[in-house]
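Homework-ish question, so no full write-ups if that breaks the rules, but can someone show me the predicted structure for this set?
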Amino acid sequence: MTAAVPNAAASSDVMIELRGVNKWYDKFHVLKDINLQVAKGERIVVCGPSGSGKSTMIRCINRLEEHQKGQIIVDGTELTSDLRQVETIRKEVGMVFQHFNLFPHLTVLENLALAPMWVRKTPRKEAEALGMQYLERVKIPDQAKKYPGQLSGGQQQRVAIARSLCMNPRIMLFDEPTSALDPEMIKEVLDVMIELAESGMTMMCVTHEMGFAKTVADKVIFMDRGQIVESNPPEEFFTNPQNERTKLFLSQILNH
Amino acid sequence: MSHNFVPLPDQPPPTASVGAIGWLRRNLFSSIGNTLLTLLSIYVLAVSLPPVINWAFIDADWVGVSRDACTSGGACWVFVSARFETFMYGFFPAEETWRINLIYGSLFLCMAPLFFDKFPYKVQLGAFVIFVFPIFGFILMFGGVFGLTPVETSQWGGMTLTLLLASVGCVAALPLGILLALGRQATNMPAVKSMCVLFIEFWRGVPLITVLFMSSVMLPLFLPEGVSFDKLLRALIGITLFQSAYMAEVVRGGLQAIPKGQYEAADALGLSYWKKMGLIVLPQAMKIVIPGIVNTFIALFKDTTLVIIVGLLEILGMVQNALNDPNWLGYSTEGYVFTAFMFWIFCFSMSRYSQALERKLHTGHKR
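A: Not a homework solution, just the prediction itself:
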């Protein structure tokens, strides 16, 4: 039921490629033969019930989790146990977490400037200017001198997005970025993500925000029990789901 | 139809719950049981405190040079003042004690700016105090160059020796402890991990007094003839290794308190292991374990008294030595009270400093 791989992804512009990826936690088989291609500038939304392996899959892409079988190729570099390659890929891949994971002992601006300074060796002045530029892009430049603990959840998540952008990544991964937020704050984060999508960033986003999926996704992937069950453009995914499992899932999350 | 939401105005708290009366009520007389305990405490203080104050201050003798000055029946502080030099400097030659005072003075001058938030060169000065100052201090203490009379380590003693043992112990044990803690956490390097576990468990398993005794008595047996380490150096190494094991476990506690998300965020940004630890994990972990670290420092400070077993006379050793002086027999209470007071001043200062540091580093975040 997996849709045919679109032509765009087959070209040389493939940013992320997963070939027969398998992963086990002890004996528990979390990812089963995952095949996936993400083209440059493509926006993928991954959804599925909890425990379906969607977070694990996205975390494999910058090797926060190790896969045990198959190949993951990111921007032309294969992920292996070679630490240098892992670090090279992590520089190119930004990640936004469910719980923000800002560094609480640093101010917002220090959070933003840290990686450019220490990984890219940008001078402090430049790194801070870069940080301010991205804070303006996420519309909270006035919070620069505060500590993360003094910000609302929505503001913290926007800082987290800006922090990833400061590394000038070619790919952005989002792992349930709005799941830990109060309903009032979800929109401000989604707005930032939509703007980012419109700027042409290659994005993979695990989320249950179906509105977001309808607006920006080029492709929606539905996962269950470690497998990709369905992968289709949003119009088709929402109006004409192919698989029974997808239909059940959609009826549960759209009609509550 | 629309309503504007208008919050109620703030009101002051009830008067009986604030002010001195409120405080007394809440803290001392909040129930029958608490009232009885308060009264009992007042009684115990009233019975025990006046004799102590009488002995220590009112009936005490303060001035004089020998025991003949002590006639009033209270504490004979003359013993302490007459022997003060040896308590502070040990057997350091009297005409050379200016060198120790110079160390204290210059150390104070170097450290003072570190306590001011606005001082711009903190890191540089801190590095100077930790790496360069010890060389300067060692030259002054040891002598033998620049026309300074050499002073053997066997002549070092008193409070000077206590502070030397404690500060070298703290400064050396902390980084070693951090490395050991990181090593013990390194699950992907089993060899490093098991070596660290072995080291920590060995040193935590033996009493310090055994370590000192072994370093002094056993070590020379294993060394070839003619090779000998300085006794003080051996004690310092023993204390450092011993305390680093404790420090490692304190730091490990802090490392475990850092959420996995912090490691992952650092990884995702492409930080290498040492940058992740140095910039993200350790600053947070160390802040959590400040109380534990200071606790270890205080324990170390007091454990320095054990070097008496290998014949090094720090302040307690010097006091006990003075008590054996036939001229001053029978003044052990004064000697021990004085020693305890000196220790208390330093330990209490450390404790207050750590509390101030915790407050300063608190950035209003909670987990």
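Now go work out the reasoning yourself. Hint: Strands of chain A lie at 14-25, 28-39, 43-47, 69-74, 77-78, 93-96, 171-175, 202-206, 219-224, 227-232.
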